[in-house]
Amino acid sequence: MNDRMVRARTQLLLKKPFFGYLAMFLEPIEDYGCPTMGTDGNKLYINPDFVKLLTDSQLQGVICHEVLHCGLGHIWRREIRDVIRWNMAADYAVNALILKDGLSLPEGNLYDSQFDDMCAEEIYNRIPEMPTGLERFMDDHSKWGEGNKEDWDSKRASDEWRMRVTQAVQSAKMQGKMPGHLESLIDDLLEPKLEWHEILRDFVLSSAKNNYVLIPSNKKHLWRDIYLPSIKGESISIAVGIDTSGSMSDEDIRSALSEIQGICEQFTEYTLYLIQADYELQDFVEVDEFTPLPDKIKGRGGTNFVPVFDEVNNRSLDISSLIYFTDGYCDNFPKAPPYPVVWLIIGQDKFDPPFGSVIKVE
Protein backbone atom coordinates (compact mmCIF):
# COMPACT_ATOMS: atom_id res chain seq x y z
CA MET A 1 0.00 0.00 0.00
CA ASN A 2 2.80 2.41 0.89
CA ASP A 3 4.49 1.88 -2.49
CA ARG A 4 1.26 2.60 -4.36
CA MET A 5 0.63 5.76 -2.35
CA VAL A 6 4.16 7.02 -2.97
CA ARG A 7 3.83 6.26 -6.67
CA ALA A 8 0.41 7.93 -6.89
CA ARG A 9 1.57 11.12 -5.18
CA THR A 10 4.71 11.20 -7.34
CA GLN A 11 2.62 10.93 -10.50
CA LEU A 12 0.43 13.78 -9.30
CA LEU A 13 3.48 15.96 -8.67
CA LEU A 14 4.68 15.29 -12.22
CA LYS A 15 1.41 15.40 -14.13
CA LYS A 16 -0.98 17.32 -11.88
CA PRO A 17 1.29 19.57 -9.79
CA PHE A 18 -1.58 21.60 -8.33
CA PHE A 19 -3.00 18.49 -6.67
CA GLY A 20 0.41 16.91 -6.05
CA TYR A 21 1.70 19.96 -4.18
CA LEU A 22 -1.31 19.99 -1.86
CA ALA A 23 -1.20 16.21 -1.33
CA MET A 24 2.22 16.54 0.28
CA PHE A 25 0.64 18.33 3.26
CA LEU A 26 -1.43 15.26 4.22
CA GLU A 27 0.38 12.53 6.19
CA PRO A 28 -0.76 9.03 5.03
CA ILE A 29 -1.97 6.84 7.91
CA GLU A 30 -3.18 3.24 7.60
CA ASP A 31 -6.58 2.97 9.28
CA TYR A 32 -8.70 -0.16 8.93
CA GLY A 33 -11.43 1.60 10.91
CA CYS A 34 -11.87 4.01 8.01
CA PRO A 35 -14.13 2.34 5.40
CA THR A 36 -12.38 3.94 2.42
CA MET A 37 -10.28 7.08 2.72
CA GLY A 38 -10.71 10.30 4.69
CA THR A 39 -8.95 13.34 6.07
CA ASP A 40 -9.10 15.74 9.00
CA GLY A 41 -6.99 18.41 7.28
CA ASN A 42 -3.72 17.05 8.67
CA LYS A 43 -3.68 13.33 7.97
CA LEU A 44 -4.85 11.14 5.11
CA TYR A 45 -6.56 8.08 6.62
CA ILE A 46 -6.35 5.08 4.30
CA ASN A 47 -7.92 1.64 4.42
CA PRO A 48 -5.42 -0.66 2.60
CA ASP A 49 -8.23 -3.01 1.55
CA PHE A 50 -9.98 -0.12 -0.21
CA VAL A 51 -6.80 0.90 -2.04
CA LYS A 52 -6.41 -2.64 -3.42
CA LEU A 53 -9.71 -2.22 -5.27
CA LEU A 54 -8.60 0.94 -7.08
CA THR A 55 -6.78 1.39 -10.35
CA ASP A 56 -3.80 3.75 -10.29
CA SER A 57 -5.89 6.48 -11.93
CA GLN A 58 -8.72 6.02 -9.42
CA LEU A 59 -6.27 6.15 -6.51
CA GLN A 60 -4.93 9.47 -7.77
CA GLY A 61 -8.50 10.73 -8.15
CA VAL A 62 -9.43 9.80 -4.57
CA ILE A 63 -6.29 11.52 -3.23
CA CYS A 64 -7.29 14.66 -5.17
CA HIS A 65 -10.79 14.34 -3.74
CA GLU A 66 -9.43 14.51 -0.18
CA VAL A 67 -7.04 17.31 -1.09
CA LEU A 68 -9.86 19.48 -2.46
CA HIS A 69 -11.97 19.01 0.66
CA CYS A 70 -9.07 20.61 2.55
CA GLY A 71 -8.12 23.19 -0.06
CA LEU A 72 -11.68 24.43 -0.49
CA GLY A 73 -12.32 24.44 3.26
CA HIS A 74 -15.23 21.99 3.22
CA ILE A 75 -14.03 20.56 6.53
CA TRP A 76 -14.54 23.91 8.26
CA ARG A 77 -17.32 25.61 6.26
CA ARG A 78 -20.39 23.60 7.27
CA GLU A 79 -21.39 25.87 10.18
CA ILE A 80 -25.04 25.09 11.12
CA ARG A 81 -25.97 23.22 7.93
CA ASP A 82 -27.32 19.68 7.95
CA VAL A 83 -24.41 17.20 8.04
CA ILE A 84 -25.63 14.76 5.37
CA ARG A 85 -26.64 17.47 2.90
CA TRP A 86 -23.35 19.31 3.44
CA ASN A 87 -21.34 16.11 2.89
CA MET A 88 -23.27 15.49 -0.32
CA ALA A 89 -22.77 19.05 -1.54
CA ALA A 90 -19.03 18.93 -0.83
CA ASP A 91 -18.64 15.64 -2.74
CA TYR A 92 -20.64 16.92 -5.71
CA ALA A 93 -18.42 20.03 -5.84
CA VAL A 94 -15.03 18.28 -5.75
CA ASN A 95 -15.99 15.34 -7.96
CA ALA A 96 -17.07 17.68 -10.74
CA LEU A 97 -13.66 19.38 -10.68
CA ILE A 98 -11.73 16.10 -10.58
CA LEU A 99 -13.60 14.48 -13.46
CA LYS A 100 -13.36 17.65 -15.51
CA ASP A 101 -9.58 17.50 -15.10
CA GLY A 102 -9.46 14.04 -16.66
CA LEU A 103 -8.92 12.02 -13.48
CA SER A 104 -10.86 8.87 -12.58
CA LEU A 105 -12.99 8.05 -9.55
CA PRO A 106 -14.44 4.75 -8.27
CA GLU A 107 -17.95 3.82 -9.31
CA GLY A 108 -20.76 5.11 -7.15
CA ASN A 109 -19.28 8.56 -6.56
CA LEU A 110 -21.65 11.50 -6.28
CA TYR A 111 -21.66 13.42 -9.55
CA ASP A 112 -24.33 15.40 -11.38
CA SER A 113 -23.59 17.69 -14.30
CA GLN A 114 -26.14 20.23 -13.05
CA PHE A 115 -23.72 21.03 -10.22
CA ASP A 116 -20.70 21.72 -12.44
CA ASP A 117 -18.86 24.94 -11.52
CA MET A 118 -20.94 25.43 -8.34
CA CYS A 119 -19.55 25.91 -4.83
CA ALA A 120 -20.69 23.59 -2.02
CA GLU A 121 -22.96 26.24 -0.47
CA GLU A 122 -24.85 26.74 -3.72
CA ILE A 123 -25.19 22.98 -4.27
CA TYR A 124 -26.41 22.54 -0.69
CA ASN A 125 -29.33 24.89 -1.33
CA ARG A 126 -30.38 22.77 -4.33
CA ILE A 127 -30.27 19.39 -2.59
CA PRO A 128 -33.60 18.09 -1.19
CA GLU A 129 -34.00 18.92 2.49
CA MET A 130 -34.62 15.26 3.31
CA PRO A 131 -32.04 13.05 1.53
CA THR A 132 -33.11 9.46 1.02
CA GLY A 133 -30.44 8.15 3.39
CA LEU A 134 -29.21 5.80 0.66
CA GLU A 135 -26.58 8.15 -0.73
CA ARG A 136 -23.20 6.52 -1.23
CA PHE A 137 -20.19 8.51 -0.15
CA MET A 138 -16.89 7.60 -1.70
CA ASP A 139 -14.89 8.76 1.32
CA ASP A 140 -15.28 9.08 5.09
CA HIS A 141 -16.19 12.53 6.45
CA SER A 142 -16.49 11.49 10.09
CA LYS A 143 -13.22 13.22 11.06
CA TRP A 144 -14.42 16.63 9.89
CA GLY A 145 -15.57 17.62 13.38
CA GLU A 146 -18.38 20.12 13.88
CA GLY A 147 -17.42 22.46 11.06
CA ASN A 148 -17.40 25.50 13.36
CA LYS A 149 -15.60 28.33 11.60
CA GLU A 150 -15.60 30.38 14.81
CA ASP A 151 -13.32 27.83 16.49
CA TRP A 152 -9.77 29.18 16.60
CA ASP A 153 -8.07 25.94 15.53
CA SER A 154 -10.52 25.57 12.63
CA LYS A 155 -9.92 29.14 11.50
CA ARG A 156 -6.15 28.66 11.65
CA ALA A 157 -6.33 25.40 9.67
CA SER A 158 -8.64 27.00 7.09
CA ASP A 159 -6.28 29.96 6.67
CA GLU A 160 -3.28 27.63 6.29
CA TRP A 161 -4.98 25.69 3.52
CA ARG A 162 -6.00 28.87 1.74
CA MET A 163 -2.35 29.89 1.69
CA ARG A 164 -1.33 26.43 0.44
CA VAL A 165 -3.87 26.61 -2.39
CA THR A 166 -2.46 29.98 -3.46
CA GLN A 167 1.06 28.53 -3.46
CA ALA A 168 -0.11 25.44 -5.35
CA VAL A 169 -1.65 27.62 -8.06
CA GLN A 170 1.61 29.54 -8.45
CA SER A 171 3.67 26.34 -8.55
CA ALA A 172 1.44 24.73 -11.19
CA LYS A 173 1.37 27.90 -13.31
CA MET A 174 5.18 28.09 -13.31
CA GLN A 175 5.19 24.58 -14.82
CA GLY A 176 2.46 25.47 -17.28
CA LYS A 177 0.22 22.75 -15.83
CA MET A 178 -2.45 24.67 -13.96
CA PRO A 179 -5.92 23.48 -15.08
CA GLY A 180 -7.56 26.41 -16.81
CA HIS A 181 -11.05 25.62 -15.55
CA LEU A 182 -9.79 25.34 -11.99
CA GLU A 183 -7.75 28.55 -12.14
CA SER A 184 -10.78 30.53 -13.29
CA LEU A 185 -12.90 29.11 -10.48
CA ILE A 186 -10.45 29.08 -7.60
CA ASP A 187 -11.31 32.53 -6.23
CA ASP A 188 -15.04 31.87 -6.21
CA LEU A 189 -14.51 28.41 -4.74
CA LEU A 190 -12.47 29.80 -1.87
CA GLU A 191 -14.77 32.77 -1.35
CA PRO A 192 -18.21 31.64 -2.57
CA LYS A 193 -20.23 34.63 -3.75
CA LEU A 194 -23.83 33.65 -3.09
CA GLU A 195 -26.81 35.94 -3.34
CA TRP A 196 -27.62 37.39 0.07
CA HIS A 197 -31.15 36.04 -0.29
CA GLU A 198 -29.80 32.46 -0.45
CA ILE A 199 -27.50 32.94 2.53
CA LEU A 200 -30.29 34.47 4.62
CA ARG A 201 -32.72 31.70 3.70
CA ASP A 202 -30.15 29.06 4.65
CA PHE A 203 -29.56 30.76 7.99
CA VAL A 204 -33.24 31.02 8.93
CA LEU A 205 -34.18 27.48 7.93
CA SER A 206 -31.14 25.86 9.51
CA SER A 207 -31.49 27.67 12.83
CA ALA A 208 -35.17 26.78 13.10
CA LYS A 209 -35.17 23.07 12.27
CA ASN A 210 -35.42 20.51 15.02
CA ASN A 211 -37.06 17.12 14.44
CA TYR A 212 -38.74 15.67 11.37
CA VAL A 213 -42.05 13.83 11.70
CA LEU A 214 -44.04 11.87 9.09
CA ILE A 215 -47.41 12.66 10.66
CA PRO A 216 -48.50 15.26 9.89
CA SER A 217 -46.81 15.23 6.48
CA ASN A 218 -45.39 18.36 4.90
CA LYS A 219 -48.52 20.12 3.61
CA LYS A 220 -46.68 21.95 0.87
CA HIS A 221 -46.26 18.74 -1.17
CA LEU A 222 -49.58 16.98 -0.58
CA TRP A 223 -51.16 18.49 -3.70
CA ARG A 224 -48.63 16.46 -5.72
CA ASP A 225 -49.50 13.27 -3.78
CA ILE A 226 -45.99 13.37 -2.32
CA TYR A 227 -45.72 12.63 1.38
CA LEU A 228 -42.53 14.04 2.89
CA PRO A 229 -41.59 14.44 6.55
CA SER A 230 -42.39 17.84 7.96
CA ILE A 231 -40.55 20.04 10.40
CA LYS A 232 -41.94 19.24 13.84
CA GLY A 233 -44.71 21.74 14.36
CA GLU A 234 -43.74 23.49 11.11
CA SER A 235 -43.39 26.78 12.93
CA ILE A 236 -40.71 29.39 13.32
CA SER A 237 -40.32 32.39 15.60
CA ILE A 238 -37.68 35.04 14.90
CA ALA A 239 -37.03 38.65 15.83
CA VAL A 240 -36.19 41.25 13.20
CA GLY A 241 -34.43 44.41 14.27
CA ILE A 242 -34.87 47.34 11.91
CA ASP A 243 -32.51 50.29 11.90
CA THR A 244 -34.81 53.25 11.25
CA SER A 245 -32.12 55.92 11.49
CA GLY A 246 -31.99 58.72 8.95
CA SER A 247 -29.43 56.99 6.74
CA MET A 248 -31.76 54.06 5.97
CA SER A 249 -34.28 54.30 3.08
CA ASP A 250 -37.87 53.11 3.39
CA GLU A 251 -37.49 51.14 0.14
CA ASP A 252 -34.49 49.15 1.40
CA ILE A 253 -36.23 48.33 4.67
CA ARG A 254 -39.44 47.16 2.99
CA SER A 255 -37.43 45.05 0.53
CA ALA A 256 -35.61 43.28 3.36
CA LEU A 257 -38.84 42.72 5.31
CA SER A 258 -40.53 41.20 2.29
CA GLU A 259 -37.60 38.84 1.80
CA ILE A 260 -37.68 37.72 5.43
CA GLN A 261 -41.45 37.20 5.32
CA GLY A 262 -41.08 35.14 2.14
CA ILE A 263 -38.65 32.82 3.90
CA CYS A 264 -40.93 32.41 6.89
CA GLU A 265 -43.91 31.61 4.66
CA GLN A 266 -42.25 28.28 3.89
CA PHE A 267 -43.51 27.24 7.32
CA THR A 268 -47.14 26.45 8.14
CA GLU A 269 -46.91 28.86 11.07
CA TYR A 270 -44.53 31.70 11.68
CA THR A 271 -44.13 34.67 13.97
CA LEU A 272 -42.02 37.72 13.23
CA TYR A 273 -41.33 40.15 16.04
CA LEU A 274 -40.53 43.37 14.18
CA ILE A 275 -38.65 45.85 16.35
CA GLN A 276 -37.97 49.31 14.95
CA ALA A 277 -35.33 51.48 16.59
CA ASP A 278 -33.02 54.37 15.79
CA TYR A 279 -31.26 55.70 18.91
CA GLU A 280 -34.22 54.42 20.96
CA LEU A 281 -37.10 51.98 20.60
CA GLN A 282 -39.68 53.20 18.07
CA ASP A 283 -42.14 50.36 17.50
CA PHE A 284 -42.85 46.71 18.24
CA VAL A 285 -45.17 44.66 16.01
CA GLU A 286 -45.94 40.95 16.02
CA VAL A 287 -46.59 39.56 12.53
CA ASP A 288 -47.85 36.07 11.68
CA GLU A 289 -49.41 34.31 8.68
CA PHE A 290 -52.66 36.25 9.25
CA THR A 291 -51.11 39.69 9.84
CA PRO A 292 -49.65 41.95 7.11
CA LEU A 293 -46.33 43.69 7.42
CA PRO A 294 -46.45 47.28 8.72
CA ASP A 295 -46.40 49.96 6.03
CA LYS A 296 -44.95 52.76 8.16
CA ILE A 297 -41.36 53.20 9.29
CA LYS A 298 -40.86 55.17 12.49
CA GLY A 299 -37.71 56.92 13.62
CA ARG A 300 -35.13 58.79 11.53
CA GLY A 301 -32.81 59.76 14.39
CA GLY A 302 -29.36 58.40 15.22
CA THR A 303 -28.43 54.73 15.61
CA ASN A 304 -28.16 52.53 18.71
CA PHE A 305 -28.23 48.72 18.51
CA VAL A 306 -28.98 48.13 22.21
CA PRO A 307 -32.78 48.89 22.31
CA VAL A 308 -33.68 46.03 19.96
CA PHE A 309 -31.91 43.43 22.10
CA ASP A 310 -33.30 44.98 25.29
CA GLU A 311 -36.83 44.64 23.89
CA VAL A 312 -36.29 40.93 23.20
CA ASN A 313 -35.11 40.45 26.78
CA ASN A 314 -37.81 42.61 28.37
CA ARG A 315 -40.58 40.71 26.59
CA SER A 316 -38.89 37.32 27.20
CA LEU A 317 -39.39 36.44 23.53
CA ASP A 318 -38.82 32.78 22.66
CA ILE A 319 -36.97 33.14 19.34
CA SER A 320 -34.72 30.88 17.28
CA SER A 321 -32.65 33.80 15.94
CA LEU A 322 -32.53 37.56 15.43
CA ILE A 323 -31.97 39.31 12.11
CA TYR A 324 -30.84 42.95 12.28
CA PHE A 325 -31.18 45.08 9.15
CA THR A 326 -28.90 48.12 9.28
CA ASP A 327 -26.32 50.17 7.40
CA GLY A 328 -23.88 49.44 10.21
CA TYR A 329 -22.98 53.01 11.10
CA CYS A 330 -22.97 52.50 14.85
CA ASP A 331 -20.52 51.19 17.44
CA ASN A 332 -22.90 50.86 20.40
CA PHE A 333 -23.45 47.11 20.86
CA PRO A 334 -25.04 45.13 23.71
CA LYS A 335 -23.55 41.99 25.23
CA ALA A 336 -23.69 38.91 23.03
CA PRO A 337 -27.14 37.27 23.35
CA PRO A 338 -27.74 33.50 23.78
CA TYR A 339 -29.44 33.15 20.37
CA PRO A 340 -27.94 33.33 16.84
CA VAL A 341 -27.74 36.80 15.26
CA VAL A 342 -27.23 37.75 11.64
CA TRP A 343 -26.59 41.33 10.52
CA LEU A 344 -27.98 42.32 7.11
CA ILE A 345 -25.68 45.18 6.11
CA ILE A 346 -26.43 47.72 3.41
CA GLY A 347 -24.29 50.68 2.41
CA GLN A 348 -20.79 49.77 3.61
CA ASP A 349 -18.19 47.04 3.19
CA LYS A 350 -16.55 47.23 6.61
CA PHE A 351 -18.68 46.11 9.52
CA ASP A 352 -17.12 44.06 12.30
CA PRO A 353 -19.63 43.38 15.11
CA PRO A 354 -18.48 41.69 18.33
CA PHE A 355 -20.90 38.80 17.72
CA GLY A 356 -23.11 37.27 15.03
CA SER A 357 -22.69 36.67 11.31
CA VAL A 358 -22.64 39.39 8.65
CA ILE A 359 -24.45 39.25 5.29
CA LYS A 360 -23.72 42.06 2.84
CA VAL A 361 -26.85 43.11 0.97
CA GLU A 362 -26.00 44.00 -2.62
Give the structural class. alpha/beta
Residue-averaged pLDDT? 82
Percentage of residues in DSSP E strands: 15-25%
Number of strands: 11
Helix content: 25-40%
End-to-end separation in angstroms reads 51 Å
Form type: elongated
Order of helices and strands: HHEEEHHHHHHHEEEHEEHEEE
The side-by-side strand order for the widest beta sheet comes to: 8-7-6-9-10-11
Q: How does the major sheet shape up? A: 6 strands, mixed
Q: What Rg is obtained from the alpha carbons, in whole angstroms? A: 24 Å
How many helices?
11
Total domain modules? 2
Low-confidence stretches: 209-233
Which features characterize this protein?
362 residues, alpha/beta, Rossmann fold, 2 domains, six-stranded mixed sheet, three-stranded mixed sheet, 11 helices, elongated
Secondary-structure blueprint:
Layout: H1 2-15, H2 17-23, E1 27-30, E2 37-39, E3 43-46, H3 48-52, H4 56-71, H5 83-100, H6 120-124, H7 152-174, H8 180-190, H9 196-208, E4 212-213, E5 230-231, E6 235-243, H10 250-264, E7 269-277, E8 281-288, H11 306-314, E9 321-326, E10 341-345, E11 357-360
Parallel strand pairs: 1-3, 6-7, 6-9, 9-10, 10-11
Antiparallel strand pairs: 2-3, 4-5, 7-8
Describe the structure.
This protein is of the alpha/beta class. It has two domains: 2-189, no CATH class; 197-360, Rossmann fold. It has helices at 2-15, 17-23, 48-52, 56-71, 83-100, 120-124, 152-174, 180-190, 196-208, 250-264, 306-314, and strands at 27-30, 37-39, 43-46, 212-213, 230-231, 235-243, 269-277, 281-288, 321-326, 341-345, 357-360. The strands form three sheets. The chain has a six-stranded mixed β-sheet with strand order 8-7-6-9-10-11, sandwiched between helices. A three-stranded mixed β-sheet has the order 1-3-2. It has a two-stranded antiparallel sheet with strand order 4-5. Helix 10 (250-264) links the parallel strand 6 and strand 7. Helix 1 packs across helix 4 (56-71) and helix 9 (196-208) packs across helix 10.
